[in-house]
């Protein structure tokens, strides 16, 4: 029965079926499947989609659909982790958010989902995040990586304000900064003092690993 549940959980991600993903996650918990094992099925599936996107076999809607399905399953799995007292090994802590003035969430949410699947502890601040909130999150969560998204050219400069604020607070040296989004280029990333950039969600995971040397 466990094998069937895990297969169906994986299939729900590959089918981009959020409702099925949520249902099979609940079945996994009800069947007493270890949350780490259930998470492994989700992770394998989302990686498969990410790899397909990287090869050019899949497209952005595929990536969005798979991420949405995984997000539907994750609350149940995370709750199971908490109830069992099991701690999964973390690759590092990431704070992520869309900069102030920008309400675009899809790209940021995909990156957050894929970082979670990869094994990072992710704290998603949401959209339209003020500079002060990014700074407070760095103080509170003590992340190894701060990831910022901006889709608009008018909001992209907010990323530099965050970097400057981190410097003023003496926090910049303790955290790697990565940026992405439709308004961001590699040249812009360098100009604001970011440590890393990638235009895609799967690529962002690779950047995070590279920045931390893992």
Shape: globular
- Please report which band the strand proportion falls in: under 5%, 5-15%, 15-25%, 25-35%, 35-45% or over 45%: 5-15%
Largest sheet: 5 strands, parallel
Strand ordering within the main sheet: 2-1-3-4-5
In the CATH classification, which architecture of the largest domain applies? 3-Layer(aba) Sandwich
How widely separated are the two ends? 35 Å
SSE sequence, one letter per element: HHHHEHEHEHEHEH
The whole-angstrom Rg is 17 Å
The CATH topology of the largest domain is given as Rossmann fold
Total discrete domains: 2
Helical content band: 55-70%
Number of strands: 5
What's the CATH first level of the largest domain?
Alpha Beta
List the total number of helices.
9
The helix-and-strand class reads alpha/beta
| Name given to the CATH homologous superfamily of the largest domain | Cobalamin-binding domain
């Amino acid at each position: 029965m466990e094998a069937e549940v895990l297969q169906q959980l994986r299939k729900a991600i590959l089918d981009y079926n959020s409702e099925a993903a949520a249902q099979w996650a609940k079945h996994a918990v009800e069947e007493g499947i270890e949350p780490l094992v259930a998470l492994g099925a989700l992770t394998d599936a989302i990686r498969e989609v990410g790899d397909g996107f990287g090869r050019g076999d899949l497209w952005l809607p595929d990536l969005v659909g798979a991420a949405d399905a995984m997000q539907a399953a994750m609350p149940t799995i995370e709750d199971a982790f908490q109830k069992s007292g099991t701690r999964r090994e973390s690759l590092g802590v990431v704070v992520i958010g869309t900069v102030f003035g920008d309400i675009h969430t899809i790209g940021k949410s995909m990156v957050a989902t894929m970082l979670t699947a990869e094994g990072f502890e992710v704290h998603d601040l949401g959209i339209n995040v003020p500079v002060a909130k990014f700074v407070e999150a760095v103080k509170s969560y003590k992340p190894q990586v701060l990831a910022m998204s901006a889709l608009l050219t008018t909001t992209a400069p907010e990323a530099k304000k965050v970097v400057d604020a981190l410097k003023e607070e003496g926090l910049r040296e303790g955290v790697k900064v990565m940026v992405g989004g439709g308004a961001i280029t590699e040249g812009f990333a360098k100009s604001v003092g970011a440590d890393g950039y990638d235009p895609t969600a799967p690529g962002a995971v690779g950047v995070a690993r590279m920045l931390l040397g893992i």
